[in-house]
Amino acid sequence: xxxxxxxxxxxxxxxxxxxxxxxxxxxxxxxxxxxxxxxxxxxxxxxxxxxxxxxxxxxxxxxxxxxxxxxxxxxxxxxxxxxxxxxxxxxxxxxxxxxxxxxxxxxxxxxxxxxxxxxxxxxxxxxxxxxxxxxxxxxxxxxxxxx
Length: 147
Fold this sequence. Notes:
It contains four helices and five strands, in the order E-H-H-E-E-E-H-E-H. The protein is α+β, with helices and mostly antiparallel strands. The protein has one domain: Aminopeptidase. A five-stranded mixed beta sheet has the order 1-2-3-4-5. Helix 1 crosses helix 2. The chain starts with a strand and ends in a 19-residue tail after the last helix.
């Protein structure tokens, strides 16, 4: 594997759409291209890709937010996906480590990630990386603002 971490580019839209589909969020290349336009123009957001000799093998999405209740910023890992052909080789951990380094450099003192309850294997992965499931002590509320 000639793996290189690099920023995601607009021309990655087709491969990124495929990765999002593997994550359970199907999207067309055009939809992803439009989303990339917003992501790549946002100075608080970063998309890191894992490139294997021209093949996008994985991606991690980071968003950095200031916190009001404490000093510092919060880094939120909004998406992490590794192509099924590359899983169980340490690539997910490599992407998370890269995102954590980016978050530290941006002044983050805390990282968070959310994951659907049915993804139990993924939860074990995050635990192994030092993340703690705090759902017993902290509720998460979501409301759709669409339509």
